[in-house]
Write a structure and sequence with these properties.
Blueprint lengths: L3 H4 L4 E2 L31 E4 L2 E4 L10 E4 L5 H13 L4 E4 L1 E2 L2 E3 L22 E2 L2 E2 H12 L4 E9 L16 E5 L2 E9 L15 E10 L3 H12 L2 E3 L20 H19 L8 E3 L10 E2 L2 E2 L2 H16 L5 E3 L15 H12 L5 E2 L27 H4 L4 H4 L4 H17 L5 E2 L1 E4 L20 H11 L6 E4 L12 H8 L4 E7 L7 E7 L5 E5 L7 E4 H4 L1 E3 L11 E6 L10 E7 L10 E4 L2
Parallel strand pairs: 4-5, 4-22, 5-14, 10-13, 15-18, 18-19, 19-20, 21-22
Antiparallel strand pairs: 1-6, 2-3, 7-10, 8-9, 11-12, 12-13, 16-17, 23-24, 24-28, 25-26, 25-29, 27-28, 29-30
Helix pairs in contact: 2-4, 5-6, 7-10
InterPro entries: DUF4434 (IPR027849)
Pfam families: DUF4434
Protein name: DUF4434 domain-containing protein
């Protein structure tokens, strides 16, 4: 996902409260594994100019949240949300755009980075003056020594209300054709003084927002209300450090927090009480690695910028969580690859910046982390990973697997909870491949993946996360034939086990499995040297509980089957395969160590 967002456009850049799962020693009354799954709610219909749409969830899947590219077309939003809802999605996250400092020429025109007149902002005029000239004129009318020292631009498909303004004598909206330009004035020191006293000479920063005449966020929230979803709109993306583009530039913290405050004040005025406003998304990506953040002091500029921006969210939208999705890089052959221990330290630092949801990218889509088990370290990597790590083994290519990293971060989550930082750990599984013959839309060289690989990614996140989301719906779930979303719809009820442990029930020894679609299954257990798999028909000898598990994603279930562990050699790796009544096996068997 890293630089994918760059490829979407120059300005489009682009996630569990600590819970200890306690299983009672005395099991509840025995329940048959034939217990029926909860009934799917009946579909409800509504009609509007975009057509008639079905809001019934028909083919729910383990992934329940998706990124969306912003659009101003309400019918596009509708089609996307209907399709996401069909596969069980209840959360959508909008990609963000960036606040950018810009040069202004002698004629008051805003320039691009290539020092050409920016056609997006050129139409912004007042009284025959450019918007930059008009803003400085109005400031100088109050005190001739007032001056604009920096000009910033920000573009969006939203339209903000009057809540975005603080000082109407110098701030306003200018409508030119289909664009609404919001002109904001920020003191250079970042104070954003509510007194609006411009009589004393000061230096100011000007922010020109190129917005839309119709507010796409309101449209999206209205749709989310219909589909019972939560929306996470993006915060303004911080300007990048020119010398280190992967890091935020702290020189612009004051202006960034001013813009963030104004937008969130407007959100608060218009959307605060809407349940569909799930929170906000921090779109500035960073690598999860060894980092320090303590009492505002940090060795990472991006974390400093995070903390300042997140403080504004806490002030203006209390109770609405901040979601961030950092990426992992487990490669051994690059100097910046990080071990699970180093990533855990980074998780703790990030949690201290005020985020409430951390949804690390599993980074399998970019090939920077592998999906494998400890007993597979000497196995050759998936051929689809070779463009990134070469023809090698997992142990040679990576410091650890997806499961190793999420386990380490879950442990870090529990540690910061003891400090008072209650952070949810989600997983962002990447729904693409490092490359491929079938490219997906405008996503550069990234190729389409398949449901089997996506099932494996969900499996490897294990019991450690409370929700699974994915980057991103368009175009990775919609390209190809059949598309990934169509593959999910056709195979959504395939069993998927994510964790298994040695667990007796009463006097009988056995194996407890957690996962999805476990009812009426059979379980095959095998290990090296075993002549034939041990097969248990869970309908006859097992125990199934569809009750959602605390601290795990919605839809997870519990299945117990008898297993005499005295037959298992100590230290051996068991392969646990769950098979549906119609013979479909889980895409990825569990590997359980008999220790």
């Amino acid at each position: 996902m890293r630089w994918l967002t760059v490829l979407l456009g120059a300005a489009i850049i682009a996630a569990v409260a600590a819970v200890v799962i306690v299983i009672p020693k005395e099991p509840p009354a025995r329940r048959t594994a034939e217990r029926k799954a909860p009934a799917v709610p009946q579909a409800s219909l509504f009609t509007d100019p975009c057509g008639t749409f079905d809001t019934g969830t028909r083919t729910p899947y383990a992934v329940t949240g998706y990124w969306l590219v912003p659009t101003s077309n309400e019918c596009t939003w509708r089609k996307q949300l209907e399709a996401i809802h069909k596969v069980g999605g209840d959360t959508v996250i909008r990609l963000g755009t960036g606040l950018q400092p810009r040069y202004v020429d002698e004629e008051g025109r805003i320039m691009t980075k290539d020092m050409e007149v920016d056609s997006r902002y050129a139409p912004c005029e007042e009284d025959g003056l450019t918007c930059v000239q008009a803003a400085e004129r109005d400031l100088k009318k109050i005190n001739r020594a007032n001056r604009i020292t920096w000009t910033y631009v920000y573009r969006t498909d939203e339209r903000f209300g009057d809540g975005v303004f603080r000082c109407p004598e110098v701030e306003r909206s200018i409508t030119i054709g289909k664009t609404v330009f919001h002109r904001l004035i920020a003191p250079q020191d970042g104070t954003d003084d509510a007194g609006c006293d411009f009589t004393k000479p000061r230096n100011y920063h000007l922010i020109i927002v190129a917005a839309a005449r119709e507010d796409s966020l309101t449209q999206l929230l209205d749709l989310a209300d219909r589909f019972h979803m939560r929306v996470f709109p993006a915060l303004p993306l911080a300007p990048r450090n020119p010398a280190q583009p992967t890091k935020a530039d702290p020189r612009h913290i004051g202006t960034l927090t001013t813009l963030t405050r104004r937008i969130l004040q407007d959100y608060g005025r218009r959307h605060r009480d809407r349940s569909s406003l799930g929170g906000v998304y921090q779109p500035f990506e960073l690598q999860m690695r060894q980092m320090r953040f303590d009492g505002g002091e940090s060795d990472n500029d991006t974390l400093r910028v995070y903390a300042e921006q997140h403080n504004i969210v806490a002030q203006e939208l209390p109770g609405k969580p901040i979601l961030v999705s950092p990426y992992l890089d487990a490669r051994r052959r690059v100097g910046f690859g990080a071990t699970p221990k180093e990533v855990a330290a980074g998780f703790e630092a990030l949690a201290r910046t005020g985020v409430e949801i951390i949804a690390p990218q599993d980074s399998r889509g970019t090939g920077k982390v592998g999906l494998y088990w400890p007993d597979e370290r000497d196995s050759p990597v998936d051929e689809r990973l070779r463009p990134t790590v070469g023809e090698t083994t997992y142990g040679t290519a990576y410091h650890g697997s997806t499961r190793d990293y999420y386990r380490a971060m879950a442990e870090a989550r529990d540690r910061v909870a003891a400090e008072g930082h209650n952070v949810q750990l989600w997983a962002n599984v990447e729904a693409f491949e490092p490359s491929g013959e079938q490219r997906c839309g405008a996503q550069g060289t990234r190729g389409a993946t398949d449901k089997r690989r996506l099932d494996a990614a969900v499996t490897l996140t294990g019991r450690y996360v409370s929700k699974v989301i994915s980057y991103m719906w368009s175009d990775f779930f919609t390209c190809g034939s059949p598309s990934l979303s169509q593959q999910i719809a056709a195979d959504h009820d395939r069993p998927m086990a994510v964790d298994a442990i040695h667990k007796p029930r009463g006097i009988q020894d056995g194996l407890e499995i957690r996962g999805y679609n476990l009812a009426n299954t059979r379980v095959n257990v095998t290990w090296e040297g075993l002549a034939a798999p041990k097969t248990v028909d869970a309908r006859a000898a097992g125990w199934h509980d569809p009750t959602p598990l605390p601290g795990m994603p919605a839809g997870t279930e519990t299945l117990w089957v008898p297993l005499d562990w005295r037959d298992v050699p100590q230290g051996e790796w068991l392969r646990v395969e769950v098979v549906s009544p119609d013979g479909r096996a889980a895409a990825e068997p569990l590997h359980v160590n008999a220790s």
